[in-house]
Amino acid sequence: MAMKQSAIKAQSNEFIVELKDFHLGFSPLANIDSLTQKGNNGHASTMTDVYVLDGNVTQGPGLVNLTNGTQATATTETINYILDIPTSGNIAYAMGNTKLFQLRPDEVISDSFFPHTITKCSEGSSIAYLQGNIFYLYNKDSDGDIGKGTPVTNTGDLSAGGIDGTNWTNSANAYASDNTYATTSSAGLIQTYKTFGLGVSPAQDIAADAYIDGIEVKAEGKGDIAGMQIAVRLSWDNGSTWTSPWKVDTANNGSDTTLTFGGPTELWDHAWLATECTDTYFQVQIQCSDLNGGTTYSLDHLQIKIYYTGSEITLDDDWGSTAVTVGKSEIEKADHPVACKEDIMLFGNGRYVGTYVYDTDTLDVDKLDFGTGTNVADVVFNANYWYIAVNTGASGTNRTMGQIFIYDGGATETILSDETGVGLERIGFLYVLDGVVYIAYQDLSSTGGYNIGYIVGRQIKKLASFTGSLPNFQQKTLYEHTIIFVSGSSIWSCGAISPDLPVQISQIADGGYATVGALAAPFGTPMVSSTDGGTNFRLAKFSGYNITGVWKSLVIPVTAPRLKGYVDSIMVLTNALGADARCDLTIEADQATRTSNVKQITTTGKVRHIFDAFGLGDFYDFRISLSWANGNTTNPCKIRNILIRGHRTEQA
Prior knowledge:
Largest sheet: 7 strands, antiparallel
Distance between the termini: 32 Å
Number of domains: 3
Number of strands: 52
Mean pLDDT: 93
């Protein structure tokens, strides 16, 4: 497979080379030869931080720190794991070495509760989301543990503490259930209640970006005759506007009965904001709309409860070590990859796989035992089976045996269903996409021997190779229908944005500092953590375009017996360039030992760029090099096509 060259004239000394279809990504041999000639016209021999998924080649995504995403504020340690799905509207979680972090799309939460320091935690490992709860797995000095977080979903029952007017007799008597009553003997006479304590304590202080799910009002009282109609409505703007229609129920005769208006999902025909659910704005009105021939309705107690989805959560850091445990008495100090289905959590625990069944509240930390010298590298769930990646052998720069075990989805047996052998290769991660289980693994004997493939029956089908390092279960996510993962200090992409395109592998973005931690995209935009190995830490997300991008074509031989090549002109097609968009083009000749003059691909609105006079002379081979070092982080320079025209000259 070699790059095609087409003559534009019959004479053999003229040549034209067209570079296009950049979605092909790296050459199949680029991982072992940065000057490879093997591939097609769109393949790269080298690339750094570039985006090729749509067929063009341009700058890859840039990074911007989240608010509070550095050591200057809340992010004072490396974040090891980011939960890849939000637990509620705009809320997700991350684990550092000693802390549990709460995240929003643009922010690391920094308040009186988060980041939350976990006593005795020395290394955060992973987080699972199961049945509305989070489970955070971590290591201590000599063993491990699991914490549990239960979200706060309502304010609890809040009693009125204030009134607006005294239309009812003894209207303040409705503040408590004590058999002293606020009363009315006039049908349609309205009493307003307020000051429910909203915002007084954390449980009632609803975060401004929380989603209000429903509002409930409880009226405990009685009529002196059966059939009295009690009606309630709410205000969100301190009594200026009220919900409509009134909600109506029928009071009991002779003894206190609690009438419930609204509920967990009832919004009273109003789109509530969390900021309206404070004592400044929230009010309740009540009336006896129909006395039904009776004399008096008596209200003993008026309460409200607001249901919401927000950031409040109750944490139990040592839940795993204090829960009822079947099997071993402790959780190992080990890697803890985790996956969930419906009511079951499956997690790695060193040589063991542990399970937690939510419906029976049963934690079993050694459900499966793979034996001495093994380590569970990753677990995923697909098509009613658990896939468990296990490495056997010494850690570090030692060859290991990789195996993938298949386990029944019910997680009730101690017998495995099937097995796929990876061979003498170490497994990094598993990833499920479109019903296919993908695998990253390493051949220690090969330079650049990092591979990504997928499972077919009992076989592994290799897709592509890459350089850098072997990514683990904490360093993978989905981006534009490709799997992106960490390798070295960079972020790579493997896959295709369309089923009509071939699978590519490319190096798409920088990871931040030299040591990259977690990669995930709980809100759709990838987030990546990193550290310089010292006191600097960051949590950043993809934003705009980088100016570190470099792309180089395959090496193109143009020599023949007694002939050398010479480039006459190059035409480059781009997008309509925005202000300050720029890419610099050079020719690298004779195995990249000589470089031409720089040609600037720039000018606002321009789409065709023609260059000559490269100051290079003749050569045996060449490749095109593109650099966005002088580009723009807002306006990209997207290369659609490069047409190179040249000729061969006879040598003495």
